[in-house]
């Protein structure tokens, strides 16, 4: 099983789970999952980690800033050349299915939409979705999840839908951090 993890899930882990991890079990399990690439960290997510929650993720998961650890285990997956599997279809879906706010979309000029589209395609969210599509296509027999704490509901003023809503359209399985941790029997924080 492999999991592609979002910044929101990493932030939840360091804020709400690691403080109760008195024996360091969860910390070590997650570190091992990164080493074995069972948990995948995209460069775009890593970059977000530098600016979210006063660097809480990188402070708690300090091995993510250890250059030797990162190099030896090739933890961070580069996405600079990542494109959608079927670019024309994906871009069509972007306009027709991934727009969260049709009213806002209709008010945009073609040029303004191109700017918003580029911003989205360069975002960690889009990179997670595109990388997930690629993994699913290349490894159809493997159990795979995109892990995020986002909900499908559009509760902000962003033009495009949230990760779970887009993944639902594309058939990408999405779970939350608690659901991921349930899949790791070696994680026991003593609540049960």
Automatic annotation (TrEMBL):
It comes from Algoriphagus boritolerans DSM 17298 = JCM 18970. This is DUF4411 family protein. Pfam families: DUF4411. InterPro entries: UCP008505.
């Amino acid at each position: 099983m492999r999991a592609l993890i979002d910044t929101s899930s990493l932030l939840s882990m360091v804020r709400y789970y690691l403080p109760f991890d008195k024996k360091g079990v969860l910390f070590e399990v997650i570190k091992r999952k990164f080493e074995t690439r069972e948990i995948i960290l995209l460069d775009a997510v890593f970059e977000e980690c530098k600016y979210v929650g006063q660097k809480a993720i990188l402070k708690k998961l300090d091995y993510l800033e250890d250059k030797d650890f990162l190099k030896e285990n090739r933890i961070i997956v580069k996405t600079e050349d990542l494109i959608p599997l079927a670019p024309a279809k994906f871009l069509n879906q972007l306009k027709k299915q991934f727009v969260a706010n049709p009213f806002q979309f209709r008010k945009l000029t073609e040029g303004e939409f191109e700017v918003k589209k580029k911003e989205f395609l360069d975002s960690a969210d889009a990179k997670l979705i595109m990388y997930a599509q690629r993994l699913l296509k290349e490894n159809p027999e493997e159990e795979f999840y995109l892990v995020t704490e986002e909900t499908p509901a559009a509760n902000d003023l962003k033009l495009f839908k949230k990760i779970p809503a887009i993944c639902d359209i594309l058939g990408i399985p999405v779970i939350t951090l608690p659901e991921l941790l349930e899949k790791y029997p070696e994680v026991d924080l003593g609540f049960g």
